[in-house]
Inverse folding.
């Protein structure tokens, strides 16, 4: 069979920095090819070259047997290459039907739009991949997962032969990811190839026919997915063998707990939640989006009001009316969305780390004590090995993993008793992720009580000694980590 | 070079700041250029002690108001009521002086009266600012709407109190407007220098100052970091009210009277200075040095143009045009240099 796309010896240099070097890739029709690599490995550059947005410095591009000497975006689209970017490039103010069919309708160069036809075209596209969406819903108001389906339908209508999906699952819940995989298989059955770009190992292992792993702009492995497993993938992605040790809690379950939550209820968010947390324990709280897991975290942080129930910290009942109350009791919270809730992007690493403890840094005459500011910043940059270690750099210049370390450092500098981490490694690549896990485990060993909110089951299995499962605002199951397998927990998470 | 190294050589700190910050550098160059050009064009009047004294009495009022605008802008807000607060505090201070000090009172009593007047002005300024702050931080009104409302409210109160008339204070107060230190530096300019010094400490060396920048950068993250955002915002508007009170004292010293409709155009001029100074209206960044350079550049331009166009009919109105043009030119240059930097 003739390959649909073949790239040979592609190289690209940006301002002296080598983004890609001698990369070759062959994609056959109807094949699901995963492109795997950490952030900054050159994945995005490769996608842009295939889409004709960026011209390679060297190498050949052959599409459908035709050598493309100077691939323009318009040529790429004509040949059937469709890229679904993370923002989907949809029109949020138009309906689902309009978004799916409008390009198709416009390309027929008719003066009048036939709305009947628009709906029919959209319906057919949806039928092809067996999905159902409300044709009249406004795209700006539908869930992310549905937006993605709209983008896929639209791509199919453009006569796509290869759909490139860039980090398609980032904003999706576990169940939505399942549904998306189903759709991808339907797309595949139509004879369309899919290039699935991801850094999430489990997804790659599940969906890929073939995988191309790149690191620092070079291909390190181009293999059949059946030959891969998680440790191999990790090794090739990071160039390291990372065997993550499972966390064992050594403490005494009969010792006085750090935190006791009794029948905590916040109407409309969660109900009758009770659990204990001992110093040095890492407790996982999982559940699907909307299960009340984030609200529970926010309530423990004083950010949303509690209607009934009790929170007891080291034997003392506490009332958390505001974030200031929670902070005063030594409770820290690392939010889910670090960009909007955790970081001051334009401010320096130093300002970010010190934001929480400014009032404690007053020296003579109520002025900030510059020496201790500097010392504190340096201490945490070193302890969490934040890279690059320059306190004056703005937070926005850091990678996701290092940004998360900065947010962690902000809380650790205030010496909390209890730290709540909501999605601690979201959008962080695999190497950094494991390093973050190590940091969290070390903190717990030093006696900090940690609660991790996440729907990343492997993450919970590696870091927590106990896991609570929430559904519709209630804790429905409790596990000692030792008593359950990853597969089991995943199934229970998505079970209705 | 890290900023610690910069700070160690504090003798040249402000020069380094200017060189590192493109906007400050451009403002500095504009200042020097305008000064040199005006000096070349009008060597007999521009670079003179006379002119220096005159300019030094003119810019501090708008300069101080621009600092009030700046601190509100740092948090992502704005304070439109500054001039109304200045007029209200000025009127009340003048009324106090007129009531307690007879025209033939000894100088010592005038001094006491002046201290009392300053206290009244500060109290009124702080109260007005507190009210602004409460509306913004506790009732969650948008700063621009809250202070637009209080601007009208405070002006209205002033009109009612004075029945729309000017209130004359005490003749001897005008020393504030007519005295020159070393025969050169007018008192308002001294006050301006003190205000700049105090605020550079507040903004750069206190927890409160750093919190303003953090809130302006990302209010949500500030709340999630346990910063008491409402408290900091209230503090900001109280400070802004206090600065307005300082301006009220200068008004009083210069004119020996206070009136409800004094200097309404200063609000927009102060905003213009702040924006020209590179203060980000959506919050999080801005430097006092920028305010100083911006107000100097504008003062040089308007004085210079006055001298050049004195003979031309309608020449005095050219100032408005020049200020607007300068603002647009600097912003356009900033836009293109930012874009070039983003590309490079």
């Amino acid at each position: 069979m003739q390959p649909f796309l073949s790239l040979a010896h592609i190289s690209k240099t940006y301002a002296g920095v080598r983004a890609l070097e001698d990369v070759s890739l062959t994609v056959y029709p109807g094949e699901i090819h995963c492109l795997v690599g950490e952030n900054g490995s050159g994945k995005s550059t490769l996608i842009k070259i295939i889409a004709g947005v960026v011209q390679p410095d060297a190498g050949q591009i052959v599409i459908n047997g035709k050598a493309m000497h100077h691939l323009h975006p318009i040529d790429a689209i004509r040949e059937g290459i469709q890229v679904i970017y993370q923002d989907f490039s949809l029109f949020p103010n138009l309906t689902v039907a309009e978004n799916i069919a409008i390009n198709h309708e416009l390309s027929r160069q008719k003066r009048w739009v036939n709305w009947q036809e628009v709906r029919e075209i959209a319906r057919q596209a949806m039928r092809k991949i067996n999905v159902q969406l409300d044709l009249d819903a406004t795209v700006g108001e539908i869930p992310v997962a549905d937006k993605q389906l709209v983008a896929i339908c639209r791509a199919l209508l453009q006569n796509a032969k290869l759909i490139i999906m860039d980090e398609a699952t980032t904003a999706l819940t576990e169940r939505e990811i399942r549904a998306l995989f189903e759709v991808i298989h339907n797309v595949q059955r139509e004879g369309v190839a899919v290039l699935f770009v991801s850094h999430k190992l489990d997804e790659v292992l599940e969906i890929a026919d073939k995988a191309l792993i790149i690191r620092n702009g070079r291909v390190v492995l181009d293999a059949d997915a059946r030959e891969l497993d998680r440790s191999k993938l990790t090794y090739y992605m990071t160039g390291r063998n990372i065997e993550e040790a499972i966390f064992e809690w050594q403490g005494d379950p009969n010792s006085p707990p750090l935190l006791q939550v009794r029948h905590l209820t916040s109407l409309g968010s969660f109900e009758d939640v009770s659990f204990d947390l001992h110093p040095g324990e890492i407790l996982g709280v999982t559940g699907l989006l909307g299960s009340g897991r984030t609200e529970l975290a926010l309530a423990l942080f004083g950010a949303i009001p509690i209607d009934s129930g009790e929170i007891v910290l080291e034997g003392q009942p506490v009332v958390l009316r505001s974030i200031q109350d929670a902070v005063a009791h030594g409770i820290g919270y690392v939010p889910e969305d670090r960009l909007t809730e955790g970081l001051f992007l334009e401010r320096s690493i130093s300002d970010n780390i010190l934001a929480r403890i400014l009032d404690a840094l007053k020296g003579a005459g109520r002025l900030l004590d510059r020496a201790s500011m500097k010392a504190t910043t340096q201490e945490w940059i070193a302890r969490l090995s934040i890279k690059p270690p320059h306190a004056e750099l703005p937070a926005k210049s850091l990678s996701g993993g290092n940004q998360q370390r900065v947010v962690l450092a902000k809380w650790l500098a205030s010496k909390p008793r209890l730290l709540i981490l909501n999605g601690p490694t979201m959008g962080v690549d695999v190497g950094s992720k494991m390093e973050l896990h190590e940091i969290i485990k070390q903190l717990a060993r030093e006696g900090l009580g940690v609660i991790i909110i996440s729907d990343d089951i492997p993450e919970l299995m590696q870091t927590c000694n106990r896991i609570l499962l929430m559904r519709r605002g209630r804790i429905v199951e409790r596990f000692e980590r030792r008593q359950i397998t990853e597969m089991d927990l995943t199934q229970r998470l998505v079970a209705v | 070079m890290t900023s610690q190294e910069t700070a160690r050589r504090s003798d040249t700190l402000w020069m380094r700041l200017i060189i590192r910050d493109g906007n400050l550098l451009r403002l500095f160059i504009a200042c020097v250029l305008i000064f040199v050009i005006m000096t070349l064009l009008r060597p007999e009047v521009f670079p003179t002690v006379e002119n220096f004294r005159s300019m030094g009495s003119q810019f501090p009022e708008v300069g101080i108001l621009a600092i009030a605008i700046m601190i509100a802008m740092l948090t992502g807000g704005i304070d439109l009521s500054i001039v109304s607060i200045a007029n209200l505090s000025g009127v009340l201070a003048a009324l106090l002086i007129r009531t307690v000090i007879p025209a033939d009172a000894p100088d010592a009593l005038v001094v006491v009266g002046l201290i009392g007047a300053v206290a009244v002005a500060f109290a009124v300024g702080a109260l007005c600012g507190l009210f602004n702050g409460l509306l913004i931080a506790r009732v969650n009104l948008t700063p621009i709407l809250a202070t637009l409302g209080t601007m009208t409210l405070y002006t209205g109160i002033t009109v009612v109190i004075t029945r729309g008339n000017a209130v004359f204070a005490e003749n001897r107060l005008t020393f504030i407007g007519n005295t020159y230190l070393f025969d050169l530096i007018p008192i308002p300019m001294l006050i301006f220098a003190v205000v700049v010094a105090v605020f550079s400490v507040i903004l750069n060396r206190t927890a409160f100052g750093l919190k303003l920048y953090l809130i302006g950068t990302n209010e949500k993250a500030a709340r999630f970091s346990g910063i008491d955002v409402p408290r900091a915002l209230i503090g900001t508007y109280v400070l802004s009210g206090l600065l307005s009170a300082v301006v009220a004292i200068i008004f009083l010293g210069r004119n020996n009277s206070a009136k409800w409709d004094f200097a309404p155009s200063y609000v927009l001029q102060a905003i213009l200075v702040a924006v020209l100074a590179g203060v980000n209206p959506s919050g999080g960044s801005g430097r006092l040095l920028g305010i100083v350079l911006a107000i100097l550049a504008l003062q040089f331009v308007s004085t210079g143009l006055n001298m050049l166009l004195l003979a031309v009919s309608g020449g005095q109105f050219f100032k408005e045009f020049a200020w607007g043009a300068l603002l647009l030119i600097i912003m356009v240059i900033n836009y293109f240099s930012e874009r070039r930097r983003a590309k490079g």
Summary: The first helix of chain A runs from residue 43 to 50. Residues 5-238 of chain A form a domain with the Rossmann fold fold (CATH 3.40.50.300). The interface with chain B takes residues 303, 323-324, 326-327, 333, 335, 340-347, 351, 354-356, 358-359, 361-362, 366-368, 370, 374, 390-392, 410, 414 of chain A (CB under 8 Å).
